[in-house]
Structures are given as C-alpha cells and as structure tokens.
Amino acid sequence: MSLRAAIALTCFALVAAACAGEMVTSQGAARSVDMAATSAVPTTTPRAVTTSSTTTTTQPPTTSAGLALVPVGGAPVFSTPGGTREYTIHEGVLLGFDSREGNFLEVVTTCNDTVWVRETDVDVTPKARSAGPTGQADLARATIVVDPGHGSRDWGGVGPTGLSEKDVNLDVSVRLRGLLSSSHDVNWSTGAIVVGTTVPAVGSVYLTRDPAGPLDGDYELGLAYRSHIANAAGADAFVSIHHNTVPTADPEGPGSEVFYAWSVDDSDRLASLIHQELLLSFQDFDVDWKGGLIRGARARIDPETDTDYYGILRRANMPAVIVEGAYISEPDEEALLRTDAFRQAYAEAVYRGIVRFLTTPEFGEEVNEPELFTSNAGTASTSSCVVPEQPDS
C-alpha cells in the first residue's frame, strides 16, 4: 500500500473524529495559528518587486508549449497537420498546446479533444518560466490562471430565485483578474485594497473562459481543457472559482471551503491562505451562514486510484485549488451573491491569498488531512459538448 493510500485510509477510519475536528499541518510540520489573529499582518510582508528591462519571462519564440488565442475571425481546425479543415473555432477561445509539427500546433479544445491549428492562424504566447519559488516569487513575472467554474449547459448550482452559479463564477473571476492585473496597496489587517504601488501587478493573468469569447463567456469547458490551459501557460498558481450547495451544518461564520491538489506540493498552503482571507472578507456580512461539517483547506482522494478526486486538480502541474466561496443554494447567501459588494469581497479575498502565497512563506491556518471520497460530485458530461464555432460572416 502506498504512503498516500495509508494516509487516506487513516483519515477515513477517523473521519468522525479527526477529519471533522482535529487539524494537522501540511507535510506534517507542526504549526499553531491563533484564529483570532487571522486579520494580522503576515509575519513576512508581501514583497514589492520590480523587474528590469532585461528580465525574460518566457521561453524562446519558437516553442513547443504555450497558449494560442483565436483571433478575430476565428481559426481553422484540422484533425491532422496539413489535413482537411474540420471547422473554424470561435474567436476569443484560448487553447493550450504542448507539441508541434512544423507550423502546426497540437491543441486541446474546450471539449477535451486533441486537434491541430496553424501557428500563423492564432496569437501564440510561449509557456512562461517560473516566477521563482513560492513564497519568494516575483509578482511582476508571475503567471496566474483563473478558472470560472461551469459554463453553458453545465450551469452548476442554482439559487432559490434562479441565480446561476456559472454566471457568478465568471463575474468574480473577471473581478479577480482585474485586481491581479493592476498594482495596489493592501492593509493586511483589515483587507482593504486601494490603488497603489506596494503590490505590483502580476505579469500574466488568463481566464479559461472569457467574456471576450463566445456568448460573452458562457460556453462549456471540459475538465482536461481547464487544467491543460494552466499547464500550457506555465502557471505559478491555478485557481478555480465556484460556489457550493446542500449545506450540512450551521457554522458560526461563513462555510467557505477551499479544496487543494493533494498531489502537488504547496497547494494546501495556497488553499489555507485563500480560506483565511475569505473569512476576513466575509466577516462584515451578517447573514445566517450555512456550511459543512469540515471547513477550511481540504483535499479529497479517490480510494480506487489513490489520487485527487477532482479531475481538474489531479491534472494540474502547479499549486491548484477549487474555491467554494458561499452556498448559492441558501436564500441569504444567494441574496449576497447578487450584490456587487459581496462579489468584490470574494475576488479581493482570493487576490490577497494569491499574493501572500507567492511572496511570503505564510500558512493561513492549519490544513485538514485528505478525506476518502466516493460520492458523485456532479458535473455535466462532455459527451455532447460542442466546441464554439465561428459564425459565417
């Protein structure tokens, strides 16, 4: 039996006691955090950094991996290099590639299929180099991929009055991209963010589905596609934005959860920091919060494969998390999610968590051990997924 399986089975046997209450730190390192101090200034303040004109952030122009953005007018898609054109993919779709043959790039479509596009028909960004070790990264060189969960017929959760998770996820993600793409001053005690120069803009930020793309960003994405974008981009962190449903407890505060990739080092630290910042952002909203029996930074393991249960995390090559901000299924929280104030607070929390993750060695809080998970998390099958095609002009 592998070490990971042993850890997971131990957690399963003790789930009633250990997983619901006792917390342990990542990699077994003991760390005690006073939760009353969650708004305190980090022991290591996020670094203000600059880059010189000679800084190189990407691989050479001719690259075998990177991102390909479909430009205005769309791009022809081929089943084989130099073969017959199959269709024209819609402008604004972002594609990842990790191999090439001459002028052709092998890309993964939004429905997880592998096809080919001509390099001359798309706008190519080579795979980025690392911005440095997590905790010491140069923000101005960092690459972040933000994934708005769900899309199109995969609408996710739906609130009591019809608010769709897929729409809220996209809005929060766009706000998060805006924060990451500009410089700020941050009050690490209160969470307040203002325009400034202390925290520089992140070098590159990508959304897996973008309002500039088809149907104002409301198109379906396969799980493999989402992770492949992050891998092909060379992302320093991958954050998927979601909201929860079906609570099982009445916590004293927000029932926010952040799931981390068990298989990738430092994902748990990223999750713990984002969770801590969510609690800080949401503390001023007075509602009847709902949640689950286990809160905070979590991981779920598939007992049959001894790997991360969530495919989007299992496929990621970098620190990766799924953020479940609020319970959209609950009337009070759905009402909050309809407001700009709450959506902005969500985006700001994730922003602060990412900045702390990249530039300090901080842990936000202790981390839950992985849990064996055999339930069906529920997501639309891509068997009938349709790649967005460029309409005839």
Report on this model:
The protein has 393 residues and is α/β, with parallel strands linked by helices. The chain is 23% helix and 21% strand. The protein has two domains: 3-51 and 128-383, Aminopeptidase (3-Layer(aba) Sandwich), CATH 3.40.630; 66-126, SH3 Domains (SH3 type barrels), CATH 2.30.30.40. It is built from eight helices and 18 strands. It has a six-stranded mixed β-sheet, sandwiched between helices. The model is unreliable at 1-45 and 47-61 (pLDDT under 50).
Features:
393 residues; alpha/beta; Aminopeptidase; SH3 type barrels; 2 domains; six-stranded mixed beta sheet; five-stranded antiparallel beta sheet; disordered N terminus
Biggest sheet features: 6 strands, mixed
Strand order of the largest sheet: 11-8-12-17-13-14
Approximate strand percentage: 15-25%
* SS summary, helix count: 8
Cα distance spanning the termini: 59 Å
Q: Helix- and strand-based class? A: alpha/beta
Class of the largest domain in CATH?
Alpha Beta
Task: Pick out the low-confidence regions.
Answer: 1-45, 47-61
Question: Roughly what percent helix?
Answer: 10-25%
One letter per element, helices H and strands E, the order comes to HHEEEEEEEEHEEEHEEHEEEHEHHE
